[in-house]
Amino acid sequence: MPRLSRNLTLLGKLSLGVGTVLRKLAIAAAAIAAAYACPAAAGPSGKGVQLAWFQKDNIFRSGLRGTHTLALTFDDGPNFNTPSVLDALKQYNIKATFFIVGVMAHAYPAVLARVAAEGHLLGNHSATHPLLGGHYDDDPQALINQIRIVHDDIAPLSPAGTIFYFRAPYGAWRTAHAAILNADPVLKNYVGPIYWDEGGSIEIRGGYIMSAADWDCWHRGWDAEKCAKGYLREIRRDNGGVVLMHCIHTHSGDLVRAVLPILVAEGYNFVRLDQIPEYKQYETPQPAAPVVALAKADYPVNAAAGR
Ligand SMILES: [Zn+2]
Fold first, then answer.
1. Would the N or C end of the chain have less CB density within 10 A of its end CB?
2. Shortest CA distance to 123 belongs to which of 51, 192, 64, 215?
3. How far is the CA of 50 from the centre of ligand 1 (A)?
4. CA of 73 to the centre of ligand 1 (A)
5. Burial 157-174 (b: 16+ CB within 10 A, else e)
6. Domain containing 83: what range?
7. pTM for the model
8. pLDDT, tens digit, for every residue of 103-139?
């Protein structure tokens, strides 16, 4: 997606160096907001603190830092480079999460089906990867369509009971969007927007690559080995986390092959997003309707037996 690449490149140029600072500020702001949240004002029901449904802010905290556990996430696919990523994951029997873009899913349905068939979790990353800005406040149906279109692609490929996760394009999110999506009977069951712990930006200090972001590595002409150094340093420093990568570039598979043998040898555990305990609190409570229905169905049999 050339336009996406250009946008990301621009974004990357603007945020180089300050990216980490901004992210830390955002995390601090989220923590302060959470600490001072007014419980009575939260939630569509107006009762208590709303934890489930779409969140008003990105979910920055995964709880995986310090746990020696990694959740690999691959955004913006699928495309013809995704099978190389799948091959690498398969080699090490690692299950990951893929945040799917609708236009890519429609162009590469067989690759999407393979992602699901190999046990990876399909997440939702919008239909066309727009910056979800303020203009969607006045056109809620357009926002709902961005998420519903992808849901209709990934839901038929996901086993019953699957929890669906959303990641906002560019990580950009607005409080007003949570209320719009929570009014939709399907989308209110989503968990998100999910942020990341590692892979957000390139940082070089004293000649050492301290962290890396794959799209920016490729933009700078780095190879997978060089990019991997940044990922490995940041992952080791945090000792676990949600890792942001992409599965649509020429070197995407090479990057996975460069980091995985090392991380596996160092004993890291690998999970999908639906295996992260911290995220369980954000799952929307489900009605107990099936139990009630079963009891009613049983009644005539029991009554007959009692006669
Ligand atoms: Zn993206």
1. C
2. 192
3. 27
4. 11
5. beeeeebbbbbbbebebb
6. 55-299
7. 0.79
8. 999 999 999 999 999 999 999 999 999 999 999 999 9
